[in-house]
UniProtKB/TrEMBL annotation:
Protein name in the entry: Response to osmotic stress-like protein
Organismal lineage: Eukaryota, Fungi, Dikarya, Basidiomycota, Agaricomycotina
Domain Anoctamin transmembrane: 167-672
InterPro entries registered for this protein in UniProt: Anoctamin, Anoctamin_N_fung, Anoctamin_TM
GO molecular function (one): chloride channel activity
Keywords: Membrane, Transmembrane, Transmembrane helix
GO cellular component: cortical endoplasmic reticulum; membrane
Annotated TM spans: 175-202, 283-308, 320-340, 368-389, 515-538, 562-587, 642-667
Subcellular compartments: Membrane
Keyword Transmembrane in record: yes
Membrane disposition: Multi-pass membrane protein
């Protein structure tokens, strides 16, 4: 049997002076002492670089049994519901602990504060400044079997519950819940994909029935998933797990109350007043708003340049002018988002959240808010600015250049290749009514293909190049073709430590953004749900490949919900109801003329004129002597557009908003009754709660267990058994590294 390792701690060993090396050696020695005194096995090995050490940690079986028993009893006291009834007097069976549970228990024990019966060893702790991260090693045998099964056997659009249980057993509930959500959402896409395909075949964009069906589907999907995740949490024993969540090691208590009192149940508001945290969260709003205004202004400027200036310019390099907005977007926007994400992380840390779930919720909402601006602002500007007011904006630009009373400006504009004011019908022809459709195609097809390559293909290529360089560097050197198990494990750990940490944020954000494109904007291009369905079939498999090959193994987390992403889905559903009402009113084709004839693009010069906007707005009078519409700034045309089309669309959206809340309440009631109340998990939950109470009384009331107080040696240091390998009996390379640094070698 190979060496058994639960976790690896990446320790920064680099030092610029002997004094700094001595401090690093002291912290390293103290770290090993804390781990071994806590009942764990720990040994240091050289890391991926000369400035890193890998400290391997293994938890003996008797210690693991204590950790599992302590968690089980704590769950009982705080009412964490599960479908299976635990025994309070059973000694436990370590073989029944899944790999994910083992890693999670050991990680929680190491990283939790001492007040929560942990060791307090975690990145970000002021007591451990040289700990960079803690990682779990990949189970490569399971990964190969998992990928082979998914690529050869699981060819459908969903994941069976048995496969989800395997993911949960090896990666934890958080990752299993993500794949469950992805599978559920992908299956749900069959409904809008079918409706959209019918709408596309019938050539009926912006059809009221499609938009209404889409809104009803979105509401039902979100509420059914709300019940599904609840059922899964009962199945996996995590329902209500937030009640036993341990405090963050970075949490700073502001009161004199003993934080160990009642351990996990210690009121976070008593340790740090709620109003202080809320006040700090309120102070972050101006910062978020500032970045939002900056980002929105830049995106609007890019949009105006691409939509209008490129249409007016007719000078040298016209064919390349359209690349300027794209270059600005791909170079400047990511930098702004990077700076914002750093500030968002700092602000969230300053808010001093007691628990990881509330910290992640706050950070997720901050980050996704600005990501949504990048994703949806361009579509909003096209639908509600470019098409309704595009002629006015284009005329305003021409008027400002050629009829501003400044000959120098007009001459410079002419020299630059910008055309003078066009006749009215030519200006209208410059407005592209299919722009919204083109943008939807780009977002739901082109962008998803690019994201697939960036997530899956590019990391594979880069790793191949890096590996080839390493092989060239070691060419001619002797290499062990048959390394022993310990050497192979250390080499694997070094490779994995160089990989980025995997987080679920990017994957959830991608799916929620896709949901937004479908629910809010697919009326413009009904094939969007079908494209999303095909993309998600690949996503189910590419995500598995990405997790096993392109990042570190995710640390298991106990969760019972997708958290803030459920709130984001609900908000998007509401916005979709408003937007669809406005889009249908503004853009659905209308029959015009005394004979009920539908005007086509060839007959009207633009399909835009067949919509409500085109029907209500008449082309203003144009004269050669006054190259403007309704005055210099075209206010008559803009006001007419606003009053006869946009304002009624706003009223339609408000009416849809009121109807949304009524319909959602009805659907939620039906789903709760039909789906949840009739589920096996609902019945099992009620039965388990009754059985737990009966068992508790029959088995002596829990033997005086108090959560947070060391139980059966939790926090003490039992003798650690040997796992039967040479890893733990071999030399500790950390001591020799620091000895060399201190001597100046």
């Amino acid at each position: 049997m190979g060496p058994r390792v639960d976790l690896a701690i990446i320790f920064r060993s680099g030092a610029k002076s002997k004094a700094e090396a001595a401090d690093a050696a002291a912290e390293y020695k103290r770290l090993l002492a804390v781990l071994t005194d806590g009942g764990l096995k720990a040994i240091g090995k050289k890391g991926a670089s000369d400035s890193e050490l890998l400290i391997f940690v293994w938890c003996p079986e008797n210690k693991l049994q204590q950790l599992a028993e302590h968690e089980r009893r704590t769950d009982f006291v705080y009412g964490v519901a599960r479908a299976k009834v635990p025994s309070l007097t059973s000694t436990g069976n370590p073989d029944a602990v899944t790999p994910a549970e083992r890693i999670r228990l050991v990680y929680a024990y190491i990283s939790s504060p001492k007040a929560d019966s942990g060791l307090g060893v975690a990145p970000g702790s002021p007591h451990w400044t040289r700990i960079q991260s803690i990682m779990a090693l990949q189970d490569r045998d399971f990964n190969r079997a998992w990928l082979s099964n998914w690529t050869r056997k699981q060819v459908g659009f969903s994941i069976p519950i048995s496969e989800l249980d395997k993911i949960r057993d090896n990666f934890g509930e958080s990752l299993a819940l993500y794949f469950s959500f992805l599978s559920f959402y992908t299956r749900a896409l069959f409904v809008p994909a079918t409706l959209g395909l019918i709408s596309w075949v019938l050539k009926a964009p912006y059809h009221p029935l499609y938009s209404l069906s889409l809104s009803l589907w979105a509401i039902a999907t979100v509420d059914i998933w709300r019940v599904c995740e609840r059922a899964l949490s009962v199945r996996w024993g995590t329902h209500g797990v937030a009640r036993v969540e341990r405090r963050r090691v970075e949490f700073i208590a502001a009161s004199n109350q003993d934080p160990s009192e009642e351990n996990i149940a210690a009121d976070a508001d008593a340790l740090f007043p709620w109003w202080k945290r809320e006040f700090r969260m309120a102070l972050s709003v101006p910062v978020i708003s500032l970045f939002g205004i900056l980002l929105g202004g830049l995106l609007t400027a890019i949009f105006l340049f691409e939509a209008f200036v490129t249409q007016l310019y007719d000078g040298p390099g016209k064919d390349y002018l359209g690349f300027i907005p794209t270059i600005i977007f791909v170079t400047v926007i990511p930098r702004i988002m990077g700076v914002y994400n750093q500030n968002a992380g700092s602000l969230t840390k300053w808010e001093n959240h007691a628990h990881e779930s509330s910290f992640n919720r706050s950070l997720t909402l901050k980050t996704f808010a600005l990501s949504s601006i990048v994703a949806f602002l361009g579509l909003f500007l096209t639908a509600f600015v470019y098409i309704p007011f595009g002629p006015d904006v284009m005329r305003w630009v021409n008027t400002a250049l050629f009829d501003s009373g400044h000959p120098d400006i007009a001459e410079a504009a002419t020299d630059a290749g910008i055309k003078p004011l066009l006749p009215p019908i030519d200006i209208q022809a410059k407005i592209n009514p299919g722009r919204l459709h083109a943008q939807m195609f780009a977002y739901t097809v082109t962008n998803q293909a690019i994201n697939f390559f960036l997530e899956t293909g590019l990391p594979f290529i880069l790793r191949g190049i890096a590996k080839a360089r390493v092989n060239r560097n070691i060419a001619g050197k002797r290499k062990d073709e048959n390394p022993d198990a310990v050497t192979q494990l250390v080499e694997n750990a070094r490779e994995e430590s160089a990989l980025p940490e995997y987080t679920l944020f990017a994957d959830y954000a991608e799916m929620v953004t896709q949901f937004g494109y479908i629910v809010i904007w697919s009326a413009a291009w009904p094939l969007a749900p079908l494209m999303a369905l095909l993309n998600n079939w690949l996503e189910l498999r590419s995500d598995a490949f990405k997790i096993t090959s392109h990042g570190r193994r995710p640390l298991p987390q106990r969760v019972d919900t997708v958290g803030p992403w459920l709130e984001a889905l609900g908000f998007i559903t509401w916005v979709g109801a408003l937007t669809n009402a406005a889009l249908v009113y503004l853009f659905r084709p209308m029959t015009v003329g005394s004979h009920g004839r539908t005007t086509t693009a060839a007959q009207s010069g633009s399909p835009f004129l067949t919509t409500t906007l085109g029907r209500d707005i008449k082309v203003p009078h144009f004269s050669a002597g006054n190259a403007t519409f309704g005055g210099k700034l075209g206010l008559t045309h803009a006001t007419s557009t606003l009053l006869t089309a946009v304002l009624p669309a706003v009223l339609a959206a408000l009416a849809a908003s009121h109807a949304f809340f009524v319909v959602r309440a009805l659907i939620r009631h039906v789903v709760e009754r039909a789906v949840w109340r009739g589920s096996a998990e609902y019945r099992a939950l009620g039965k388990a709660e009754r059985e737990v109470k009966r068992k508790f009384l029959a088995e002596g009331g829990g033997d005086g267990f108090v959560p947070g107080v060391a139980s059966n040696g939790i926090g003490a240091g039992p003798d650690a058994q040997d796992d039967g390998t040479d890893l733990w009996t071999g030399p500790d390379e950390g001591a020799s590294v620091f000895a060399g640094l201190i001597k100046g070698e």
